[in-house]
Amino acid sequence: MSQSDIADRDGMQNGQAQDGGEESTRRDFIYIATASFGAVGVAGVAWPLIDQMNPDASVRALAAVEIDISAVEVGQSITVKWRGKPVFIRHRTEEEITSAEATPLSDLPDPQSDEARIQRPEWLVMVGICTHLGCVPLGQRGDYGGWFCPCHGSHYDTSGRIRKGPAPLNLEVPDYVFLTDTRIRIG
Known about the structure:
29% of the residues lie in helices and 21% in strands. By secondary structure, it is of the alpha+beta class. The protein has a four-stranded antiparallel beta sheet, with no helix packed on it. The mean pLDDT is 88.
């Protein structure tokens, strides 16, 4: 066997083509196939772990609720459940609107105008959880004709703003939109 035959055989075993370039070998194929199967395996294991972090269908179904408010008369309130919380929807009277608009911001522990809390003056939508310790306030009670928390005595006015008591903040106004004149979507 000549020296050139030995060099050609060694070059073929090392994956080098006779013209000096590299050629794919069986070993390269095994490396690529192993890496591909490994990547698919990692994706197959990771996907269920990542997917389980998404909210399930019951949570997504409660993310937004649509409410028909056509049957709520002036001066009445309804309470709906949204994300496990009570939401008060109040059809305010003219006196309640006037009282809320006439309140000076300097009298409020958490100053916020009535206009900033509503989309339409006759409708007030807010989460019915006291901002002190999470009790549910009673409607049309208290010193200001709004809501009164029976747990620790916080008084809210007709716009749901804290006026007296230990609660530090106004009742929360959720994100909502009027779909029609008689239908709103919360969330």
